[in-house]
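Continuing the series of single-chain predictions for the mutant panel. This is the parent chain; the variants come on the following pages.
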Amino acid sequence: MPRIDVDDGSVTIALAPLEKMWAFHGSLNIPLAHIVGASVVDENGWQHMWLKLVGMNWPGVKMAGTFFVDGGLAFLDYNSGQACIVLDTQHETYKTVIVQPDEGQDSQAIVE
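Parent structure:
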């Protein structure tokens, strides 16, 4: 799962090599000024219907890549869908970023 770090005015989402392959994407770096909302959400609370553009979509096992939702793009990378960090952005390619952090990381602490 991705390692998420907040420092120097940005959020870095570092994908492991296998995740990069599944998502057809590299790591992300988002300036804090472009993040308009951040929360911790379980998959069961999402009201979205995802349309995969590129990546892996195996519900219940792994979702990773670029998806189309609500008139914009979303980047997803999660396994179980529990304690995922949801970032709402502006001035970025992805209007929503949903990632499940590395097991050693506390989702709530990252969001705060």
